[in-house]
TrEMBL record:
Encoding gene per record: potC
UniProt keyword list: Cell membrane, Membrane, Transmembrane, Transmembrane helix, Transport
Organism of derivation: Planktothrix agardhii (strain NIVA-CYA 126/8)
Residue ranges occupied by any ABC transmembrane type-1 domain in the UniProt entry: 65-253
UniProt membrane topology term: Multi-pass membrane protein
Protein name stated in the entry: PotC
Amino acid sequence: MAAKPKFRISWQVVFVCLMFFYMYLPIFVLTFFSFNKSRYSAGWEGFTLEWYVKLFQDTRILTALNNSLIVGICAVGIAAIIGTLMAVGLARYHFPGKGLYQGASYLPLIIPDIAMAVATLVFLAAVAIPLSLWTIVSAHVVFCLAYVALVVSTRLADLDPHLEEAALDLGATPIEAFIQVLLPQLMPGIISGCLLAFVLSMDDFLIASFTAGSGANTLPMEIFSRIRTGVKPDINALSVILILASGFLALFGEYLRIQGEGKRLKN
């Protein structure tokens, strides 16, 4: 009788398991202590949902969340329009200095946040624009624009350019060809880029803290001001909610990408 093959675990599997354990252990610990009855996270005193209830009754947190949503939605909405047009223009047209312009448009992806924050603050001071919630929006448009344009340009590279030419040959104007032919195909990429930019905008602390006016606290700024005296269970609960929301947006964006890829292959 042939001997049964022994079950072996390769070092690659062990390495992957250790890597994921190292990455997600802090999140599990954070989630565990968000249900801790103790006001301080030093020891476990019992299970409770009190901190989640208090979180939704905290006016400062709700105000900061509202500010973050206003900043994220406005910045992403503006970046979606400009970023899509920029990606299409760079892919479809040739003009002097195109390479320089393309390189400069993606600089916010590689420039450190602290450098962008200081540069934005200096610019706002030079042109004498008072700091407010809308200066945060204008600063966030800069890096949201780069992320949206990058995702849309990646989607655009996989499309057949002859579809627009066919629409033009059939009598459509360039604007009609863009709206009725190109834009529906780009929509999964636009939505994915917007979701990515929105999560990054909600998560931003450095740029917002440098460009915010008095009373214009965003959610990361409010969290940072509270953890100076120690991490409380309500902040743990808020962090868990933010992690779940970000994960949902990431899964939704991936779902849209898969759906768009499936439609493209069928066509």
